[in-house]
Amino acid sequence: MLRIAVPNKGSLSGPAGEMLHEAGYRQRRESKELRIVDPVNEVEFFYLRPRDIAIYVSSGRLDIGITGRDLLLDSGADAEEILPLGFARSTFHYAGKPGTADGVADLKGKTVATSYEGIVAKHLADSGVDASVVHLDGAVETAIELGVAEVIADVVETGTSLRNAGLEIFGEPIMKSEAVVIRRTDAGTEDPKVQQFLRRLQGVLVARTYVMMDYDCRVEQLEKAVALTPGLESPTVSPLHNEGWVAVRAMVPSKEAQRIMDDLYEIGARAILTTAIHACRL
What we know:
six-stranded mixed sheet; 15 strands; alpha/beta
Protein backbone atom coordinates (compact mmCIF):
# COMPACT_ATOMS: atom_id res chain seq x y z
CA MET A 1 0.00 0.00 0.00
CA LEU A 2 0.99 3.60 -0.58
CA ARG A 3 1.74 5.16 2.82
CA ILE A 4 0.82 8.84 3.05
CA ALA A 5 1.29 11.37 5.86
CA VAL A 6 -1.54 13.87 6.39
CA PRO A 7 -1.63 16.83 8.83
CA ASN A 8 -3.59 15.90 11.96
CA LYS A 9 -4.44 19.46 13.03
CA GLY A 10 -4.02 23.15 12.27
CA SER A 11 -4.79 25.13 9.12
CA LEU A 12 -3.47 22.36 6.88
CA SER A 13 -5.60 19.55 8.27
CA GLY A 14 -9.14 20.44 7.16
CA PRO A 15 -8.35 21.51 3.57
CA ALA A 16 -6.05 18.50 3.09
CA GLY A 17 -8.81 16.13 4.19
CA GLU A 18 -11.33 17.85 1.89
CA MET A 19 -8.99 17.59 -1.09
CA LEU A 20 -8.29 13.91 -0.46
CA HIS A 21 -12.02 13.25 -0.13
CA GLU A 22 -12.67 15.03 -3.44
CA ALA A 23 -9.93 12.89 -4.99
CA GLY A 24 -11.87 9.77 -4.01
CA TYR A 25 -9.95 8.66 -0.92
CA ARG A 26 -11.45 7.53 2.34
CA GLN A 27 -10.76 9.90 5.22
CA ARG A 28 -11.05 9.68 8.99
CA ARG A 29 -14.34 10.50 10.70
CA GLU A 30 -12.91 11.43 14.09
CA SER A 31 -9.88 13.53 14.96
CA LYS A 32 -8.70 10.82 17.36
CA GLU A 33 -7.98 8.44 14.48
CA LEU A 34 -4.25 8.48 13.76
CA ARG A 35 -4.23 5.87 11.00
CA ILE A 36 -6.79 4.62 8.52
CA VAL A 37 -6.64 2.18 5.62
CA ASP A 38 -8.35 2.72 2.27
CA PRO A 39 -8.27 -0.81 0.81
CA VAL A 40 -10.14 0.11 -2.37
CA ASN A 41 -7.45 2.61 -3.38
CA GLU A 42 -4.61 0.68 -1.71
CA VAL A 43 -3.59 3.62 0.45
CA GLU A 44 -2.77 3.90 4.14
CA PHE A 45 -3.05 7.35 5.74
CA PHE A 46 -1.11 8.44 8.85
CA TYR A 47 -2.27 11.60 10.65
CA LEU A 48 0.78 13.36 12.06
CA ARG A 49 1.90 16.74 13.36
CA PRO A 50 2.48 18.93 10.27
CA ARG A 51 5.96 19.88 11.52
CA ASP A 52 6.97 16.19 11.75
CA ILE A 53 5.75 15.02 8.35
CA ALA A 54 8.90 15.94 6.41
CA ILE A 55 11.01 13.95 8.90
CA TYR A 56 8.86 10.82 8.50
CA VAL A 57 8.89 11.08 4.72
CA SER A 58 12.64 11.66 4.55
CA SER A 59 13.21 8.57 6.69
CA GLY A 60 11.54 6.42 4.04
CA ARG A 61 8.97 5.08 6.50
CA LEU A 62 6.25 6.90 4.57
CA ASP A 63 6.13 7.31 0.80
CA ILE A 64 4.74 10.84 0.51
CA GLY A 65 3.16 13.50 2.69
CA ILE A 66 1.19 16.72 2.70
CA THR A 67 2.67 19.59 4.68
CA GLY A 68 3.54 23.27 4.36
CA ARG A 69 6.44 24.44 2.21
CA ASP A 70 7.66 26.46 5.18
CA LEU A 71 7.65 23.40 7.44
CA LEU A 72 9.47 21.34 4.81
CA LEU A 73 12.26 23.90 4.40
CA ASP A 74 12.51 24.60 8.12
CA SER A 75 12.92 20.91 8.93
CA GLY A 76 16.06 20.52 6.81
CA ALA A 77 14.81 17.01 6.02
CA ASP A 78 15.97 15.12 2.95
CA ALA A 79 12.63 15.59 1.19
CA GLU A 80 11.42 17.66 -1.75
CA GLU A 81 8.25 19.31 -2.97
CA ILE A 82 6.59 17.53 -5.89
CA LEU A 83 3.19 19.27 -6.15
CA PRO A 84 1.87 22.60 -4.81
CA LEU A 85 -1.74 22.33 -3.62
CA GLY A 86 -2.88 25.95 -3.56
CA PHE A 87 -4.28 26.19 -0.04
CA ALA A 88 -2.94 27.40 3.31
CA ARG A 89 -1.06 30.17 1.53
CA SER A 90 1.00 32.49 3.70
CA THR A 91 3.97 34.84 3.52
CA PHE A 92 6.96 34.81 5.84
CA HIS A 93 8.18 38.26 6.96
CA TYR A 94 10.45 40.08 9.37
CA ALA A 95 8.73 42.53 11.72
CA GLY A 96 9.71 44.87 14.52
CA LYS A 97 8.90 48.14 16.24
CA PRO A 98 8.58 51.06 13.79
CA GLY A 99 12.03 52.31 12.79
CA THR A 100 13.87 49.15 13.85
CA ALA A 101 14.99 48.22 10.34
CA ASP A 102 14.23 48.80 6.67
CA GLY A 103 15.52 45.49 5.35
CA VAL A 104 17.46 42.35 6.12
CA ALA A 105 20.79 44.19 5.87
CA ASP A 106 19.83 46.20 8.96
CA LEU A 107 19.62 43.05 11.09
CA LYS A 108 23.39 42.76 11.57
CA GLY A 109 24.13 42.23 15.26
CA LYS A 110 20.46 41.97 16.19
CA THR A 111 18.53 39.05 17.66
CA VAL A 112 15.63 37.52 15.72
CA ALA A 113 12.96 35.42 17.43
CA THR A 114 11.09 32.87 15.33
CA SER A 115 9.41 29.46 15.29
CA TYR A 116 11.18 28.73 11.99
CA GLU A 117 14.83 28.77 12.98
CA GLY A 118 16.01 26.79 9.95
CA ILE A 119 14.42 29.14 7.41
CA VAL A 120 15.55 32.32 9.14
CA ALA A 121 19.13 31.16 9.75
CA LYS A 122 19.48 30.18 6.09
CA HIS A 123 17.95 33.45 4.87
CA LEU A 124 20.30 35.50 7.03
CA ALA A 125 23.30 33.46 5.90
CA ASP A 126 22.30 33.75 2.24
CA SER A 127 21.96 37.51 2.73
CA GLY A 128 25.40 37.72 4.35
CA VAL A 129 23.97 39.03 7.63
CA ASP A 130 25.47 38.04 10.99
CA ALA A 131 22.56 37.97 13.44
CA SER A 132 21.44 35.75 16.31
CA VAL A 133 18.35 33.54 16.01
CA VAL A 134 16.26 32.56 19.04
CA HIS A 135 13.81 29.68 18.65
CA LEU A 136 10.34 30.04 20.15
CA ASP A 137 7.49 27.58 19.69
CA GLY A 138 4.78 30.22 19.32
CA ALA A 139 3.45 33.70 20.13
CA VAL A 140 6.67 35.26 18.87
CA GLU A 141 5.04 38.73 18.87
CA THR A 142 5.66 39.02 22.61
CA ALA A 143 9.40 38.35 22.23
CA ILE A 144 10.14 42.01 21.51
CA GLU A 145 8.03 43.35 24.37
CA LEU A 146 9.73 40.98 26.81
CA GLY A 147 13.21 41.84 25.55
CA VAL A 148 14.03 38.42 24.13
CA ALA A 149 14.66 39.82 20.65
CA GLU A 150 14.61 43.07 18.69
CA VAL A 151 13.01 41.51 15.61
CA ILE A 152 10.69 38.59 14.90
CA ALA A 153 10.25 36.48 11.78
CA ASP A 154 6.89 34.80 11.35
CA VAL A 155 4.13 33.71 9.01
CA VAL A 156 1.90 36.67 8.16
CA GLU A 157 -1.64 36.23 6.85
CA THR A 158 -3.61 39.38 7.68
CA GLY A 159 -1.03 41.16 9.85
CA THR A 160 -3.64 41.88 12.54
CA SER A 161 -1.73 40.23 15.39
CA LEU A 162 1.41 42.19 14.48
CA ARG A 163 -0.43 45.49 14.46
CA ASN A 164 -2.05 44.67 17.79
CA ALA A 165 1.44 44.14 19.21
CA GLY A 166 2.64 47.49 17.82
CA LEU A 167 4.86 45.87 15.20
CA GLU A 168 5.25 46.49 11.48
CA ILE A 169 6.54 44.39 8.61
CA PHE A 170 9.74 45.51 6.88
CA GLY A 171 11.84 44.35 3.96
CA GLU A 172 11.06 41.83 1.25
CA PRO A 173 9.24 38.58 2.12
CA ILE A 174 11.50 35.82 3.34
CA MET A 175 9.41 33.27 1.45
CA LYS A 176 5.89 32.38 0.33
CA SER A 177 4.37 29.15 1.54
CA GLU A 178 1.42 26.90 0.77
CA ALA A 179 0.45 23.27 1.24
CA VAL A 180 2.58 20.90 -0.86
CA VAL A 181 3.00 17.20 -1.52
CA ILE A 182 6.48 16.03 -0.61
CA ARG A 183 8.58 12.93 -1.26
CA ARG A 184 11.99 11.72 -0.14
CA THR A 185 14.68 13.35 -2.28
CA ASP A 186 16.36 10.10 -3.35
CA ALA A 187 13.12 8.19 -3.98
CA GLY A 188 14.41 7.09 -7.37
CA THR A 189 12.16 5.65 -10.08
CA GLU A 190 8.69 7.12 -10.12
CA ASP A 191 6.18 4.84 -8.39
CA PRO A 192 2.99 4.31 -10.49
CA LYS A 193 0.91 4.56 -7.31
CA VAL A 194 2.47 7.92 -6.48
CA GLN A 195 1.81 9.13 -10.02
CA GLN A 196 -1.83 8.05 -9.75
CA PHE A 197 -2.16 9.90 -6.45
CA LEU A 198 -0.70 13.06 -7.97
CA ARG A 199 -3.00 12.82 -11.01
CA ARG A 200 -6.00 12.64 -8.71
CA LEU A 201 -4.93 15.72 -6.78
CA GLN A 202 -4.14 17.57 -10.00
CA GLY A 203 -7.63 16.66 -11.18
CA VAL A 204 -9.09 18.25 -8.05
CA LEU A 205 -7.01 21.40 -8.61
CA VAL A 206 -8.24 21.69 -12.19
CA ALA A 207 -11.86 21.05 -11.17
CA ARG A 208 -11.58 23.84 -8.59
CA THR A 209 -10.00 26.23 -11.07
CA TYR A 210 -12.27 25.77 -14.09
CA VAL A 211 -15.96 25.54 -14.92
CA MET A 212 -17.60 24.06 -17.99
CA MET A 213 -19.29 26.66 -20.20
CA ASP A 214 -21.94 25.88 -22.81
CA TYR A 215 -23.59 28.35 -25.15
CA ASP A 216 -25.21 28.74 -28.56
CA CYS A 217 -24.05 31.21 -31.17
CA ARG A 218 -24.45 32.08 -34.83
CA VAL A 219 -21.91 30.51 -37.18
CA GLU A 220 -20.70 33.92 -38.35
CA GLN A 221 -19.80 34.79 -34.73
CA LEU A 222 -18.08 31.48 -33.99
CA GLU A 223 -14.50 32.67 -34.41
CA LYS A 224 -15.05 35.58 -32.01
CA ALA A 225 -16.72 33.26 -29.52
CA VAL A 226 -13.96 30.66 -29.71
CA ALA A 227 -11.38 33.40 -29.14
CA LEU A 228 -13.14 34.08 -25.82
CA THR A 229 -13.40 30.39 -24.89
CA PRO A 230 -10.41 28.56 -26.44
CA GLY A 231 -10.68 25.71 -23.93
CA LEU A 232 -7.66 23.60 -23.06
CA GLU A 233 -6.98 22.04 -26.47
CA SER A 234 -9.97 23.31 -28.43
CA PRO A 235 -13.68 23.82 -27.70
CA THR A 236 -16.31 21.31 -28.80
CA VAL A 237 -18.55 22.73 -31.55
CA SER A 238 -21.74 20.99 -32.66
CA PRO A 239 -24.37 22.05 -35.22
CA LEU A 240 -27.86 22.84 -33.90
CA HIS A 241 -31.14 21.87 -35.51
CA ASN A 242 -31.73 25.47 -36.57
CA GLU A 243 -29.46 26.17 -39.52
CA GLY A 244 -26.77 28.77 -38.91
CA TRP A 245 -26.46 28.06 -35.16
CA VAL A 246 -23.89 25.97 -33.30
CA ALA A 247 -23.49 24.79 -29.71
CA VAL A 248 -20.11 25.37 -28.09
CA ARG A 249 -18.63 23.74 -24.99
CA ALA A 250 -15.31 24.67 -23.35
CA MET A 251 -13.58 24.80 -19.99
CA VAL A 252 -12.96 28.36 -18.76
CA PRO A 253 -11.26 29.73 -15.63
CA SER A 254 -13.92 30.05 -12.94
CA LYS A 255 -12.62 33.48 -11.84
CA GLU A 256 -13.21 34.84 -15.34
CA ALA A 257 -16.52 33.08 -16.04
CA GLN A 258 -18.83 36.06 -15.43
CA ARG A 259 -16.76 38.39 -17.61
CA ILE A 260 -16.63 35.80 -20.39
CA MET A 261 -20.40 35.34 -20.20
CA ASP A 262 -20.87 39.11 -20.58
CA ASP A 263 -18.54 39.22 -23.59
CA LEU A 264 -20.24 36.25 -25.24
CA TYR A 265 -23.65 37.85 -24.79
CA GLU A 266 -22.39 41.06 -26.39
CA ILE A 267 -21.41 39.20 -29.58
CA GLY A 268 -24.77 37.44 -29.77
CA ALA A 269 -24.27 34.16 -27.92
CA ARG A 270 -27.32 32.88 -26.06
CA ALA A 271 -28.28 30.10 -23.62
CA ILE A 272 -24.95 30.61 -21.85
CA LEU A 273 -24.56 28.15 -18.98
CA THR A 274 -21.78 27.25 -16.54
CA THR A 275 -21.55 24.01 -14.57
CA ALA A 276 -19.10 22.91 -11.89
CA ILE A 277 -16.48 20.27 -12.61
CA HIS A 278 -16.26 17.61 -9.91
CA ALA A 279 -13.37 15.56 -11.29
CA CYS A 280 -10.92 15.88 -14.13
CA ARG A 281 -7.99 14.20 -15.88
CA LEU A 282 -5.95 16.16 -18.38
